Amino acid sequence: MAYVKMRWVYISLMVLGVFCLYYNLEDLNPFKGEPVIFKNELGDFLQLPDIDCGQDPPFLILLVASSHEQWFVRLVIRSTWGKEKIIKGKRIKTFFLLGTSPSKHISREVAKESQKFRDIIQKDFTDDYFNLTLKTMMGMQWIYSFCPQTTFVMKTDSDMFVNIYYLTELLLKKNRTTRFFTGFLKLNEYPIRKRFNKWFVSKYEYPWDKYPPFCSGTGYVFSSDVAGEVYHVANSVPFIKLEDVFVGLCLKRLKIRLEELHSEQTFFPDGLPFTTCRYKKIVASHHIKPRDILRICPFSHCHTDIQSHLVPNLQEDQFLLSTLLHRTLAALRAEASHDCETYKC
């Protein structure tokens, strides 16, 4: 009998312990006490792209948040929608934002990649999903410090398709070059307080009940003057790991209002099934894999040029994979051609 009682006491204590741990995870939160203010002293840049904006400033710069292992995704982007282009007389350039990796081998490969393509922006912070705020502020700092002459900037992610032709067309029509910020507007969003949710935010990190208006971090566009303003005001804004919300907090402090780019939806943070007609009239779509990019690009004015971007000093299996992708491009084009016949514009 005593054994049974002791067993129930033990089980009860275990359940109580789990219950207390579940409801007191904030005790482990580094933001406990009061919201931490962002500090933009992240040290020197480790990798910088090769561009002289003073001599030949681009019209639009795309900043793509990437991670070290996504070398192949970067290869595809460089060869398709991220390839340097002149559209309606306006130059568009693409650069990749990276943190650091604990792997020395991967770090060496990224350094080689940077030396070859000269399109990587990197600082010394751990490359992690919840460091996207640091990564985005790094991009803002780089624009402010090295390329304020560009007219527009787009921050986006590596699993996106960006129709730079339609984006350029809309930006020229908009004719707004100062204090301009657009994307997929989120005007009534609330913090998620459910623990273990990917986007959980504790009340210590963000004590307020509602987020300010912000644009989805999957892709937003702004005039270059905003980069410097956001970078400087960030010092007085409570830090939050959700980078799009953090940028929204900065914009609120700056009194910069979000604007729609077009009367029709052009940014699709939840993705959009591909059809030729649809993708000619969008700016950005989420959840896009490299194969999808190659399928879309022949019918969205992209130029696919995988062969010229092969990296001979990468491992042999990576090189062969790139070559195989180049050979399958014709089949993907044929598949998209059938889609084009199915959906007449």
UniProtKB/TrEMBL annotation:
A GO cellular-component term linked to this record: endoplasmic reticulum
Gene Ontology BP annotations: lipid metabolic process; protein O-linked glycosylation; response to bacterium
Keywords (A to Z) from UniProt: Glycoprotein, Glycosyltransferase, Golgi apparatus, Lipid metabolism, Membrane, Signal-anchor, Transferase, Transmembrane, Transmembrane helix
Localization terms from the record: Golgi apparatus membrane
Membrane topology, from the record: Single-pass type II membrane protein
Top-level enzyme category: transferase
Protein's pathway: Protein modification; protein glycosylation
Entry EC number(s): 2.4.1.-
MF (Gene Ontology): N-acetyl-beta-D-glucosaminide beta-(1,3)-galactosyltransferase activity
Pfam families reported for this sequence: Galactosyl_T (PF01762)
Stated family: Belongs to the glycosyltransferase 31 family.
Protein name, UniProt field: Hexosyltransferase
Annotated organism of origin: Bos indicus x Bos taurus
